[in-house]
Amino acid sequence: MIIFNTTFHIDEVLNEEFVEYILQRFIPMSTKSGILNSARFARIFGSNEDEGLSYAMEFQVGSIDQLDKWNKEESKDVFNPLMEKFKEKLIGFSTVMQTVDY
Fold first, then answer.
1. Topology of the domain covering 2-98
2. Within 13 A of 46's CA, how many CA atoms are on the CB side?
C-alpha cells in the first residue's frame, strides 16, 4: 500500500478557515477520481506551536503508478487553489511511503 502524506503548517490566525477548506474542498477534490482514497486528516503536536499549527493530510493509493497519474493529471487542480487561497501563510511538503508488512 502506498501512502501519500502532505504535512501543512498554517498561521494560527487562519486555522479554522484552513481546517474547513481541507474538509469541505481539499479532500473531496483530491478523492473525486478515486485514485486517492481513505483520507485521514490529523493535527500534529510539536514544539513550534507558538509559530502556527501543523497538520498531516494522508491518502492511500494503490500503486506508485497511480500516484504518478494523479500527480500529472489532478494535483495542480487541488494544490494550486489551496496555495492561492492561503498564500504565504501556508507551507507544506509531501512524502510518499510504502507500508511494510511484518
1. Alpha-Beta Plaits (3.30.70)
2. 13
State pLDDT tens for residues 25-41.
Answer: 999 999 999 999 999 99
The cell numbers describing 44, all together, are 500534529
Q: Each residue of 49-79: b (16+ CB within 10 Å) or e?
A: eeebbbbebbbebeeeebbeebeeebeeebb
C-alpha separations of 71 from 14, 20, 36, 44, 96 in Å: 27, 23, 10, 25, 12
Q: Taking 80 as the threshold, does the pLDDT of residue 48 lie above it?
A: no
DSSP H helical ranges for 23-93: 27-31, 64-73, 75-86
Separation of CA 47 from chain center: 21
CA separation for the pair 65, 69 (Å, rounded): 6
